[in-house]
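Suppose you are handed a protein chain with no further information: no name, no annotation, nothing but its sequence. What can you learn? This example shows the usual starting point.
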Amino acid sequence: MNNKTTKKAICILSGGMDSTLASYIAKKDGYEIIAVHFNYGQRTQNRELKAFRDICDDLGILEKYEIDIPFFTQIGASALTDKSIDVPTNGLEAGVPITYVPFRNGIFLSITAAIAEKEKATAMYIGVVQEDSSGYPDCTEEFINDISKAINQGTREETSIEIKTPLVHLSKAQIVEEALKLNVPLIHTWSCYKEEDEACGVCDSCRLRLNGFNLANQIDPITYKVNL
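A reasonable first move is to predict its three-dimensional structure. Written in structure tokens, the prediction is:
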């Protein structure tokens, strides 16, 4: 194989709609994909892991990392990792919501950078969405640019890693439209913060996803307990 066919990208793949689309874009961009998934004690950890494995099968990804990060449950401070804190179901909160996991994307990107350096990958894809997200501070373009500089300063001189955020300025409706254009198997993705058997339909993530489908005039292929 020549160099043009062996450029590698590490895709942070949660199993959600955004990270899945970002991974499909990486494939379209001609990268050999190495997928990374994090089990960090989130409420829907088992369901997200199933989604990750299904999507890796869909994409034909042969090399993948499933990384356990147990300390998030020790820290708590987030409804996703502390079961004594209820996941909000009354609509999006103002400011940074209680579902924010402290510096999660910063930690994910740091670990992924170590994998990228080992694998001699030149790109890392992450499905952050700035303008239509839940207000998380680690999903902004400014944050990604700054941590990209730190990663390249803190790795070998010959290491050069570009963090690619193809969805950062898209709305959820545009994400749905792009996913359909690329034939992304959205039925295999999981977005719900609360449930693992059937999506709740009322948490922030379900609301954002459902609203995106509604604005795109499309039907979400997964089922919900409540469809607002």
